[in-house]
Amino acid sequence: ISQLEKEVDEKRFQHENRIRVLKTQFLQEQRQFEHEAELRVHAMAEKADKRASQCLTEQTRRISAENRQLRIHLQELIENTNGLQFQKKQLEKQYQKLLQEHQFNLELRKLKGLPMSGSFDSNSDLNVTTTHVSTLPQITR
Prior knowledge:
Elements lengths: L1 H111 L29
């Protein structure tokens, strides 16, 4: 019996040693695996940061190019508007001049005693609405 108890104690001791060695080995492998996982996560984060930076740079370039095109288009629209405003001023001046000439002709006919038939009254028959340029928004560069 004593011999068997010694064997059991010996086997128990060997078993405990093996368990301790396996546990130590497991913990060491676990730490190594965690370290490798951290390295992989760090590498993936760096790769993602680099890709995000590239995407932002690319998007910034696209937006800048689009802004340049929009700026050019806006400049063309401003120039066109300025041209139209100038043309409108010229037409308004021409209209005022024609109105004055018409008024002058009417007064001349009246002085000469000529009939007024076929003429039109500048306030009723002439269907032209004048607007003043000052009411239009001014666009400047």
